[in-house]
Amino acid sequence: MSGQDQCERAIGGSLVRTQGVTAPSGFRATGISAGIKASGKPDLALVFNEGPDYAAAGVFTRNKVKAAPVLWTQQVMTTRALRAVVLNSGGANACTGPLGFQDTHATAEAVAKALSAWGTETGAIEVAVCSTGLIGDRLPMDRVLAGVQNVVRELAGGLTGGAEAAQAIMTTDTVPKQVALHHDDSWTVGAMAKGAGMMAPSLATMLCVITTDAVADADALDRALRHAAARTFDRLDIDGSCSTNDTVLLLASGASEIAPSQAELDAAVLAVCDDLCAQLQADAEGVTKRVAITVTGAASEADAVTAARVIARDSLVKTALFGSDPNWGRVLAAVGMAPVDLEPDRISVSFNGFPVCIDGAGAPGARDVDLSGADITVTVDLGVGTGVGTVRTTDLSHAYVEENSAYSS
Amino acid sequence: MSGQDQCERAIGGSLVRTQGVTAPSGFRATGISAGIKASGKPDLALVFNEGPDYAAAGVFTRNKVKAAPVLWTQQVMTTRALRAVVLNSGGANACTGPLGFQDTHATAEAVAKALSAWGTETGAIEVAVCSTGLIGDRLPMDRVLAGVQNVVRELAGGLTGGAEAAQAIMTTDTVPKQVALHHDDSWTVGAMAKGAGMMAPSLATMLCVITTDAVADADALDRALRHAAARTFDRLDIDGSCSTNDTVLLLASGASEIAPSQAELDAAVLAVCDDLCAQLQADAEGVTKRVAITVTGAASEADAVTAARVIARDSLVKTALFGSDPNWGRVLAAVGMAPVDLEPDRISVSFNGFPVCIDGAGAPGARDVDLSGADITVTVDLGVGTGVGTVRTTDLSHAYVEENSAYSS
Question: Binding of substrate: at which residues (chains A, B) (predicted)?
Fold first, then answer.
């Protein structure tokens, strides 16, 4: 489902990509260059919730190897409230041992102290930390701590720089990703995200901060976020590699004084997450094709998603799509390994709506389907039930190999 | 373990790669060009067991989508005996429906009839069929059936052309793969194999015919083959994609009149399979690095192999190795997703024997390890038990993408 379709289904709202986390009332954000990246590009962002509410929810990587900021933020989220999120690119602070965790803690402390000095009494336990970049190296903490002072000073200056924040969390991303949904009932959901590689569905596969000025408690936020993540980030699979740092946070300020129904909140958060997924897919490392793998006729929705994911991860399917080659046999070979109910002789496959395989055997003209466009839909009907699910992926291109072999990232 | 090491462990035998399936007494083989391949290259091979014994064993793809020749040969193997194996490249005869199965059956019938005419009374149920090539198209049966006449005529001429047979089963392979182990006790195991892509461990991931002149019944052959396959083909993973056509057959003629012990047979078959795996790995599609991933300290051998396989399939690990980049963080991120017992803070990693990560954090000099050679060993110690396992893989290179996107294969 495209962001546009999703938007139309969302009750009375419209999506704009020119705004992000500061679109809702009650949020400030900015991004600066703190010198963490050798390139001097922006690398430190802060999102600040002015209230009056501070309810929050979060979902995190399912990788057993979790970065220090993930371990810290999971502790913070036990309070189900957040005043601020500090995010850095230029280093993942993953696999850095106890000292790396101390670095994350010190960063949260520094943010809390600087915000308190600015007149907003804040404790470190109210500050989430997100990091992204190369795994395995300690962060340059002198630069991080000096950067924290600067980024809070900028924020105190009254700037609401959601776009700058979205810029500062980029790694191999080529464009910043942000979106806002303005609900007709005068409340708003805004968000930013980063992520271009090491993306596979495990709750969330990148950094993402979502804000809203709706009045919603932590339970409502948690429900809306899990509902959306399961249908969006969980079904985005660029390279099957799950990051150590994945974090998605949802913060509510309540500043609109409007309390939407759970269904309205669910729909709005889903629309925003869906649009961000489309942006992440379109800017994935080495992407030349945006591919949607839909499995229908599965025994269950879970089976459909599982089968779609197995196809989406298959290197031979992905290289064929890079070559615009309608090599449907590779789709059959891939789905045959999926741990789901299937009957080989009942499987049918379409590329871009054109049937290429019917009941497990080739259809006339199957080798001539035109896959030269940038968008490719692959539909696989298992013919055993009514379960349906879609996974978004990309092709496997020379550019992906180049980007991921030429330097440490 | 290299083929050489393995060889030395095999009791009193030596491996030579200049011979293959016709090295043992009692076997004839040859390969011809039947016109199945548009290129005119050799594409039809026959291996014939002159006896006096005909015991045989086989292992097959675990893919639920099985090619017609696999379905046929699985039926044949219920008799636990084989007189002949006919193999074609130029077409997988997979996903071809009931007509494709009839084609396989007709091929076996034609081989049986031609062999009978030559004076060797043979039934179709004694003839295994193997096919490899593009999935989804019917074979050109007029050429296949004419080729069967020619290949049997060649064989009747008395030629023992194991090398020609190994040549005729190649697809994207650049070199034929064969090996023979001459046991000091005057019995021999010979073999040939093909396979360069769509290789992932699922019993067998290519076509392979192994012959021996030892006296051994079907039980002994089955045990030796499963023992060897589990430790060799099952631990070779080039691209995580399991074929629809994988078949490994082991035929015994008994012509040496020597009956080795089960342990001797196991060791010899293992040595031959291990050597073939090294050959398959070295000629894999797009390979620039031969990579062995060893996991130690796992809770069990099964956990070790599972974890090694997850690392071996990770696109970001494989592209880093292509770039000779000691990016050990990607190894940690990959193993963190393996469904095995592990403690992130107890994981240690070495590249080519050099420690790059100790107890989950970077080791001094880790970024400077030289991975520029063609052979790379990655050792991951989970620190939770005594299980050990190795998976062979390759890097993910531009050549792999090129080979698999440029044309249907």
Answer: 171, 194, 205, 285, 404, 409
CA A364 – CA A226 distance, rounded (Å) = 43
- Asked whether the ipTM of the predicted complex exceeds the cut of 0.90, the reply is no
Which residues, 6 or more positions from A113, have their beta carbon under 8 angstroms from its beta carbon? none
Contact B89, B170 (CB under 8 A): yes
| Number of C-beta neighbours around residue A117 at 10 A | 14
Distance CA B202, CA A214 (A): 52
Q: Which of A186-200, A307-321, B219-233, B280-294 has the lowest mean pLDDT?
A: A186-200
Q: Please compute, for residue A191, the number of CA atoms within 13 A of its CA located in the half-sphere on the CB side.
A: 28
Describe the crossing of helices B301-312 and B315-322 by its angle, rounded to 10 degrees. Answer: 60
List, in sequence order, every residue forming a beta bridge with B292; answer none if it has no partner.
B377, B392
Contact indicator for A52, A256 with CB cutoff of 8 Å: no
> Would you call A398 and B402 a contact, using CB atoms and an 8 Å cutoff?
yes
A408 touches chain B (CB under 8 A): yes
- Name the nearest CA neighbour of A199 among A188, A207, A209: A207
Structure confidence by residue, pLDDT tens digits, A353-369: 999 999 988 899 888 99
Return the residue in B132, B172, B313, B315 with the most chain A beta carbons within 10 A, the one to mutate for interface testing: B315
Please, which residues 252-311 of chain A have a Cβ atom closer than 8 Å to chain B? none
Asked if residues B63 and A339 have their Cβ atoms less than 8 Å apart, the reply is no
Distance between CA atoms of residues B279 and A252, nearest Å: 59
Q: Cβ separation of A323 and B405 shorter than 8 Å?
A: yes
Sequence-separated (6 or more) residues with CB below 8 Å from residue B308 = B235, B293, B294, B295, B380, B389, B390, B391
- Can you read off the two tokens belonging to residue B29? 């083989």
Domains, in order of start, for chain B: 3-282 (3.60.70.12), 290-405 (3.10.20.340)
Considering only CB atoms, A362 lies closest to which of B95, B243, B344, namely: B95
Asked if B357's CB is within 8 angstroms of A332's CB, the reply is no
pLDDT of A299-352, one tens digit each? 999 999 899 988 988 888 888 898 898 988 889 888 888 889 988 889 999 999
Q: Report whether A29 contacts A21 (CB < 8 A).
A: yes
Q: A337: distance to nearest CA of chain B, Å?
A: 5
Number of H helices, E strands in chain A: 11, 16
